[in-house]
Amino acid sequence: MEKFIKRISAILTVVVLYLLVGGFYLQSKGFVSDPENFFVLASPAQAAQKAKKTIPDNYAFPNQHVMGDKNAPVTLYEYSSFACTHCATFHLQVLPQIKKEFVDKGMLKVVFVPLPLDKNSMDAALLAECVGEDKYFDFINVLFKNQGDWSLSFHPQKTLIQYAVFSGVNKDMAEACLKNDANAEIILTNRQNGLSDIGISGTPSFVVSSKKGNELVEGYKSFDDFKEIINKHSNF
Fold first, then answer.
1. Are 151 and 122 within 8 A, CB to CB?
2. Strand order in the sheet with 31-33
3. pLDDT tier for residue 235 given thresholds of 50, 70 and 90
4. Strands 205-210 and 66-67: what pairing?
5. Domains of the chain, with CATH numbers?
6. What is the tens place of the pLDDT at every residue in 13-66?
7. How far is residue 216's CA from residue 210's CA, in Å, rounded to a whole number?
8. Cis bond leading into 156, ω under 30°?
9. By C-alpha distance, which of 53, 181, 63, 167 is closest to 113?
10. How much is the pLDDT for 76?
11. What is the CA radius of gyration of the chain?
């Protein structure tokens, strides 16, 4: 029994240290976590800058990963970090309803834009680039569904590589993808543009875009919330 207690204590200590290190990392990047687990920018100056931010109607959003008809009149840009729990909740619970109600009917397309907040999320985003566009959304569903497993793993990169292999990526190719500087540059550029140009201050964040303009929506929202916003931007 004593050995068991010591083992549990050791595991808990490692987990606590892991969370503390993760917290310090985010703080070093200007992020803090609010009571609802929404990662937000800590700097008041950045918050003030965001409040003045207006997204131009002709802003060039990323368009690498599209779900639905590319000619749909309304677009939902989803900026998410793979380690963000509210991002996972949206993607696994709310997005399927949005897909059924709007995407499958050609009214809306969804563009996923990874916004990594830590190294593990960056690794996940890089591996997602390896699986091929036809499997992209299936793979990120796997990442979100298993978020608790890989994000708290002692070897998160190894676990993430295994998910890529299960999705049909050769192990050597998966390891090479983690070192793909070109993809890393695109991901980080999109991340920086989201923060500086759009005014994103945390994850998840969304932009609803249509002929009526671009609307920034921050934080987790229910399906009914999105339904109201999407209908406002559509002509249906």
1. no
2. 31-33, 39-41, 202-203
3. confident
4. unpaired
5. 52-233 (3.40.30.10)
6. 443 344 444 444 444 444 444 444 444 443 433 444 445 578 998 999 999 999
7. 12
8. no
9. 63
10. 98
11. 19
Strand partners, 78: 112, 206
Please tell me the predicted confidence (pLDDT) of residue 151: 87
Would you mind telling me the total number of residues written for the chain in this entry?
Answer: 236
Cα separation values, 64 from 60, 209, 215, Å: 12, 16, 20
| Burial class of residue 89 in the structure, from the number of CB atoms within 10 Å of its CB (0-12 exposed, 13-18 middle, 19+ buried) | middle
116 vs 124: CA distance, rounded Å: 9
Tokens of 123: 């690794």
Long-range contacts, stretch 29-35, CB < 8 angstroms, 24+ apart: 29/117, 31/117, 31/202, 34/202
The encoded tokens of residue 172 equal 């050597």
99-105's contacts with Cβ under 8 Å and 24+ in sequence apart are 99/67, 99/68, 101/223, 101/227, 102/74, 102/230, 103/67, 103/68, 103/69, 103/72, 104/68
In Å, how far are 7, 17, 36, 105 from 3, measured between CA atoms? 6, 21, 37, 59
pLDDT in tens, 160-215: 999 999 999 999 999 999 999 999 999 999 999 999 999 999 999 999 999 999 99
